[in-house]
Design brief:
alpha/beta; Dna Topoisomerase Vi A Subunit, Chain: A, domain 2; three-stranded antiparallel sheet; 13 helices; 17 strands; 42% helix; 18% strand; globular
Amino acid sequence: MTEVKKRLETLGEDVLRDINSSKNPDIDIPIRSLSNVIYDDKSKQLTLGDKVSKRFLFNVAHAKPFMQTMLVAALCKELQEQKIHTSLRDLFYALKRTLPGSDENTFDEQNESDPVVVDLEVTLDVLREQLNLNADVRGRVVGNVVIQDRGDIINWSKLGSGGWAIPSNVEEVTFKSVDADYILVMEKNAAFERLHEDRFWQKQNCILVTTQGQAARGPRRLIQRLSSDYKLPVYVFTDADSYGWYIYSVIKYGSISLAHISERLGCPTAKFIGLTISDIDEFKLQGFTIKAKEVDIKRAHEMLKYDWFQHPAWQKELKLMVERKVKAELEALSGRGLKFMTEVYLPTKIKNKEFLP
């Protein structure tokens, strides 16, 4: 029996024991809100505090969420027994039905089932992927790396212009060989394609990863494994705006919503390579900036208060953005020439070690 299947069965046995003892069955679920998220300065990661909420079966407000939790747990146990995987969308449809003798549905929308999956994950202290649940595929990678994925040998350096599409579940991926000096992570596909076409990864002997926006769990876990197992530095390359910078912080410290698994997804040694508001002046990008929206400024004000953005360098960049009310996309570098990014900006930053912590 796998450890995950054992934990699922223990959850069910505990509920059954309470029922047989005429007790009101309950499940302890750690609270995942910002009020229970702690920034650990020592580990440089976001972690969950010790606050929990109890979910009771015989409680008007809790009965449906309790039922939903047990339904998801039962399906996950079935996936373990059959040794198959399914998507979050499939899980929703597999469990959606009307309860006999009522007009009440088990789930009305997927935005009901997804949080229950995370509740189960944090309660059992396992990864969603270990429950055999997959999300949408997002992210690509290229470099001098050979892996084995479900029996197939895949060379990341020989996959044409597209690179390897990172699956949502990388737990079964085995690294056969890794030849790289560092990992360069970028939020934009356009930047990835520009660097890939110029063979930046080959010239610099690095691994290129695009997260395609906010990093999904598959790319974050892959980056964490490569960084941890092969002691590779991680440099993150995003837009010069509050949302791009938060993408960096999620890769480095973890996220508020997934603070319970930061140690499995975060890269505390990651460094920020750009863009910054200061870069606009240093690299003469003034003519290629964009006016920041109110939502950008509001987000910057929120981040100024976060414990993990208190370093003077980050306070400076966030305040510059608020004061100037501007932002810049990675594509702005192309305003200085289509090869400026690959031949000037990144090589200069890497050579001079101009990183933000």
